[in-house]
Write a structure and sequence with these properties.
The chain has 337 residues and is an all-alpha fold. It contains ten helices and no strands. It folds into two domains: 116 residues, Cytochrome c-like domain (Cytochrome Bc1 Complex, Chain D, domain 2); 123 residues, Cytochrome Bc1 Complex, Chain D, domain 2 (Orthogonal Bundle), CATH 1.10.760.10. The chain binds heme C (2 copies). One heme C binds next to helix 5.
Length: 337
Amino acid sequence: MKMTPAIVIIGSIMAFWASMSVMVIMPAITLKVEPSEIWRPMTAEEQEGYRLYVRNGCSYCHSQFIRVMDWDLGAERIAQAGDYVDRGPDLMGSKRTGPDLSQEGGEHPDDWHLAHFTNPRNTSPISVMPSFAFLGADSIRKLTAFVQFEGMLMADQRVERQRHWKEAALQTYGKDLDSHVQWLHAMVPEVWRPMPNPYPALEADLARGRKIYQQFCIGCHGPVGDGRGQAAGFLNPMPLNFTVLRRHLVDNRYIGGLLYYQIMNGITGTAMPYFKKSLESEKIWDVANYLAVSFIGYSDANIEPTGIDASYEPRWQNRFQAPDGQGLSDERDSVGR
Ligand code: HEC
Ligand code: HEC
């Protein structure tokens, strides 16, 4: 057969529609996906937030699905086809410059999102996410409603938990700071409170802690730890002023375990995020030591009870005295016995 222009054009149109019908039209007619057990429809406000998500190119940086091998935000649940019923267009996304958002709902309270959308550097000092302040307060509220919906019925439970603890926190926060801090500490499990920081507070450790503080904490707690970072004006309760903790050492000695627990777990209901997924154990202890030394003026690093030092740790002297002046200097011999 001779290749005439007409045959080439008709042939390519036929090939196009053949593949369209196999790959797009037939699946659309025959594939009926049932809603998954966590699915629920969007409210009108969430729907508008979703439109803003589509229009503003959020999916260039954020995905909307979690795979078996994932380990980060929302990895407790693998995404399923039934999660996407009634959602169009599906913006799965192929890039994760930022975290996957399919289980974002209830990860943070609304005040965190307001500070973050206004300027992501408020809450996350080294974020590359653009500011969305130009959208205005109304659109930021809708975007927040949509991200709080992400995860559907699972997210609703988390959002409810945030509300519950915010209410509880605001009860004492409204009175005076000391009773609020006492309440915060009473919520920390008993075993964590009389636990000293097991890492020494040497120059290298403190320098590491400082770097972590600057990359993760400074936007809220501020450069001098007084809780007046650039996010503070958006948040209620405001970030804690660490100098207050001078008055709240456990048994007049311990602060390390308490700080560790709060940093690891965050304080649900407040903007204080958990760091157990983003910082490994040594980094949490190091930033706790940095806080203690720089802002509280006292560290319980490695005081009794101690165990066997990790093999790489250099011999050191505890330079930080207990507030009662009794001295907690480490008097081990050259091999650390
Ligand atoms: C240039 C890439 C980029 C774009 C575009 C972008 N983000 Fe982000 N986003 C990030 C990065 C990186 C992070 C992690 C650091 C941080 O918290 O800001 C992040 C974090 C987030 C978080 C917090 C996740 C958490 O719990 O830690 C939310 C919610 C979010 N983005 C929503 C959005 C929405 C909604 C849009 C569109 C309006 C958007 N992002 C656009 C890069 C981006
Ligand atoms: C998005 C803001 C935000 C960021 C980021 C943040 N915090 Fe907080 N943090 C808070 C708020 C708000 C509170 C106080 C909650 C309250 O008073 O109920 C708090 C409380 C705390 C407490 C509780 C102290 C106590 O005695 O119970 C510790 C410790 C703490 N933050 C350490 C950190 C560290 C370390 C980082 C960085 C790794 C950090 N925070 C990052 C907002 C933040």
